[in-house]
Amino acid sequence: MKLPNQFYRPLAIGAPAPLRELPVKVERMIHFVPPHLEKLRAKVPELAKQVDVVLGNLEDAIPADAKEAARAGFIEMAKAGDFGSTGLWTRMNALNSPWALDDMIEIVGAVGDKLDVVMLPKVEGPWDIAYLDQLLAQLEARNGVKKPILIHAILETAEGVKNVDAIASCSPRMHGISLGPADLAASRAMKTTRVGGGHPDYKVIADAGEEPAPRPTYQQDLWHYTIAKMVDACASAGIKAFYGPFGDFSDPTACEAQFRNAFLLGCAGAWSLHPSQIVIAKKVFSPDAAEVAFARRVLEAMPDGTGAVMIDGRMQDDATWKQAKVIVDLAKQVAATDSDYAKIYGF
Ligand code: GLV
Ligand code: MG
User: Which atom of ligand 1 is nearest to the CA of 60?
Assistant: First the structure.
């Protein structure tokens, strides 16, 4: 860990000063685009109006022989579009791959001023962030980039999970962390071939009774431990936690349940890999209108946030005032960027 007086120093002469606070942004879905496919690239200007973040994916799911085309396609897509308040991110290739260095040299060189966040896969520890932090500072300085490009780590190895606290707090360039359930399952030798979601065999079983089988079973959440650990690491470091991909596009109900568990536990958003998941993420990661209305009543009933009152038979005090403020603050942010929700909440 750096000494406090070194923490916010630019890492290269001429690089922009690191941010002291994350910009306040609504990032309910990080929408993945494969930028080597011209047909999908052409849809990006329209897409950018519907999503909070557009991400050009260079890593897994891009074939090895299309890596250069994806990088060039991302640069073209970034140059062509006016993204307004929509975030522009890329997922670079892993640091041990043959493509990572050129991903950063070429992209920061060409569109560094448009790029908000680099998603870094397979992060094992704070040393991976330190390397990219230094490289980005050098490239920002070389290319005259005015605002710091942030780093978002994917939590998708057993070692990364072990080191998640250190990853979250090692640099002022950290934006947040996403759970990557597919790589993480492989890294841990979990016996599932699914990308996120539950598994019917991961369950508890009711006690044996008098009657013959079947005894009731209750499916458990495979991801609870990791998401909770990630949320604590992120919240305590002042950065944001995200759920990553949900692979079964044919099961929107399960996708919604997975996203909602992440939202309730403290995540800010999730990845959308298919257009149908944009709608699901918007619905889940925008707080529920009835919850917002109730939270506003709590804040109004306790203007200075202290004391105790009863509302609809439910006890409210300083702590529940803070809970209500989380919901109302988020609703205000969502309303400020999404006019449909401004109407729904009545702001
Ligand atoms: C995402 O990258 C994952 O491995 O789940
Ligand atoms: Mg992965």
Answer: 2
